[in-house]
Write a structure and sequence with these properties.
By secondary structure, the chain is of the alpha+beta class. It has seven helices and nine strands; from the N terminus they run βαββααββααβαβαββ.
Length: 232
């Protein structure tokens, strides 16, 4: 498919609609330039068929590439790893007193940061709706881990295996929606998700030769749109 086309219609609106149908995209995906306006008609052309021409150019789509581009990993020295673990363990020992009985946690450190796993089947309140509380708690732990360390410390938190379960749910959702898009030939807009969750959707459908994914909107309402791939 060409990136730029010339579309015609009896009015500017009709010309644009015809072009969007030809490109099979929504209006926000193109740049529009009116070449011949219906208002500019001479006396001698008043009886001639009215034709309006517009030039439509597909906008560059860079959102997906930015979405899945891996971030530069900051490596920690052994001394920094030890300090980060000590910071988090001290905090967890205090917060554990406020958590349900028999709550346990494990901290695994390496040069990329810390992995913290908290276990107790009664910690739903600490996970929150779609993991919102979990991710907020993860940010807190990251800030605590970096105390008296010049580098930013990456902390990955999981509670009662929530992330693995959520990842499976999102992958199943991606496949289901992709089938719907292929069947109906209409794009589907998903609900707002965390960046981590959007990345799961993008990755799951990256190799699908019939659909494409795109992130739209601003945080915290950024979401994914799954649509048919444009044919060349």
């Amino acid at each position: 498919m060409e990136k730029t086309i010339i579309s015609e219609g009896r009015t500017t609106k009709e010309a644009i609609e015809n072009g969007l149908k030809q490109l099979r995209v929504s209006k926000d995906k193109v740049e529009i330039k009116v070449l011949e306006n219906e208002e500019k008609r001479s006396f001698f052309s008043i009886l001639a068929p009215r034709v309006v021409k517009v030039e439509m150019t597909l906008k560059e789509e860079k959102a997906d590439k930015k979405e899945i581009k891996p971030k530069k990993i900051i490596e920690l020295s052994e001394e920094e790893q030890e300090k980060a673990e000590e910071n988090v363990r001290t905090f967890m020992e205090e917060i554990k007193k406020e958590l349900p009985e028999n709550t346990t946690y494990e901290i695994h450190k390496d040069k990329t940061g810390l992995n913290v796993e908290i276990s107790n089947e009664n910690l739903g309140f600490l996970i929150g709706y779609r993991g919102e509380t979990l991710y907020a708690f993860q940010n807190i732990l990251s800030a605590i881990a970096g105390k008296k360390i010049d580098k930013k410390v990456r902390v990955i938190l999981d509670i009662e295996g929530y992330k693995a379960k959520r990842e499976k749910t999102l992958e199943e959702l991606a496949e289901k929606v992709a089938k719907t898009v292929i069947k109906t030939r209409k794009p589907v807009k998903l609900e707002p998700m965390q960046a981590y969750e959007r990345k799961i959707i993008h990755s799951k459908l990256q190799q699908n030769d019939k659909v494409q994914t795109e992130s739209i909107g601003e945080e915290p309402n950024r979401r994914i749109v799954i649509s048919l791939k444009k044919t060349k």
